[in-house]
Amino acid sequence: MAELRPGWRRMKLAECCAGVSDRVDDPSASGFERFVGLEHFATDSTTIRHWASTETVTSAMKVFRSGDVLVARRNVYLKRTAYAEFDGVCSGDAIVLRPMGKVCLPALLPYVLSTDTFWGYAISEADGSMSKRLNVHRLLGYEFALPPLEEQRRLAETLSAAEALIGALDHLMQSVYLAEIGMLESAISHATGSALVPVRELLREPPRNGISPSVNSGGEGLRTVSISAVKDGTFDPAGCIKHANIGCEVAAPFFVKKDDVFVIRGNGNRQLCGKAGLSETSYDNLFYPDLLIRLRFDTKRILPGFAVAQWNIPSVHGRLSARAKSSNGIWKVNGQDIRAHRLSVPTIEEQREILEGVGALLGGVQAARAREQSLRHFKAAILGSVSGQS
């Protein structure tokens, strides 16, 4: 076991908080207004920003109080911890922890339970195969290092400030995104040639699914990506790289090239199924997986950037996602659905003008996203220091 920093002590979670199992049979008549389900937890934040009314809940639920810490015990690989700033009721699949004593600062506890060290322990202790669940008694057996109270206070204040800034930037990006949607829809509706054209008439070659050979954890072979490389209208492999043993001659037809557009063929979230992303560069020896389908647009008819910008707005994407079919919990669209999907095709000059207008908004989003990523890295570094090991 690694040596602790001076002034730090090692303790078990059971020494600083208790599991609480108070329940209400009828949440709508309980006097509590807010219900927090697992869908309201965020993987990268301990702040509860969303909830539902207890009037929508018809079964018994757990009670939590302001200052309690909630840990999602189901599907622990999603790493969801939340700090309650209000009273309410929550899903039975959440463990309610109530800080006690003065050894561990309550404001720091949710961050202690957000470290990679904690989640490594939680995942190893969870039971089950398809949907692993964490037992509260095993959770309380988690052992961690704790700094002196004054250092706890500084860490909690720093982490809280970082989360608040990340939340503000998220809100800003959402506002700009809504403005972008409004601008696009207005510009397209006023452009010439606004009749909808099937995608199959706008491509220079047929759509093509990727390939998904077995990947390895040793970093050997050619690079591929997970479908999370498609995000916010872009194809970006950063943080999504995998490696697979496959020959170049087999993978070459699937290497990612500049102006390739990738559509997510399948996802457990119907809102993400059918979303598109544009690759703004070519990547050496990087191939795309089977759950993505590649589109190569005829640039004399439609600019790839304009196709993607239009593709992802709700009114357009909604027409494609309505075609999605569910199989084993996965929503999928196929090549036929995509070829039949229709886009508005103004003149190339008008497309450029629309993209220039949207570009000004996207510049603000990109700056905010870069700032957000810096804050997330900063927060991760601070969380790493909570381990207290030298």
Explain what this protein looks like in three dimensions.
The protein has helices at 109-112, 116-125, 136-139, 149-190, 248-251, 304-311, 314-321, 335-340, 348-385; strands at residues 9-12, 17-20, 23-24, 34-36, 52-53, 61-64, 69-72, 81-83, 88-90, 94-99, 143-146, 196-198, 208-209, 215-216, 222-225, 230-231, 234-235, 241-244, 261-264, 266-267, 276-278, 292-295, 325-327, 330-332, 342-344. It is of the alpha+beta class and 390 residues long. The strands form 8 sheets. The protein has a 5-stranded mixed β-sheet, with no helix packed on it. A 4-stranded antiparallel β-sheet has the order 2-10-7-8. Strands 13-22-19-21 form a 4-stranded antiparallel β-sheet, covered by helices on one side. A hairpin with a 2-residue loop joins strand 23 (325-327) and strand 24 (330-332). Helix 4 runs antiparallel to helix 9 (348-385). The longest helix is centred in the middle third of the chain and has 42 residues, at 149-190. It starts with 8 loop residues before the first strand and ends in a 5-residue tail after the last helix. The mean pLDDT is 88.
Helical residue percent?
25-40%
Side by side, the strands of the main sheet go 3-6-9-4-5
How would you characterize the largest beta sheet? 5 strands, mixed
Tell me the fraction of residues in β-strands, as a range.
15-25%
Provide the residue-averaged pLDDT. 88
By oligomeric state, this entry counts as: single chain
Kindly report how far apart the N and C termini lie.
Answer: 11 Å
Structural class: alpha+beta
Low-pLDDT stretches are none
Number of E strands = 25
**C-alpha-based Rg, rounded:** 24 Å
Figure out the total of helices.
9
Shape: globular
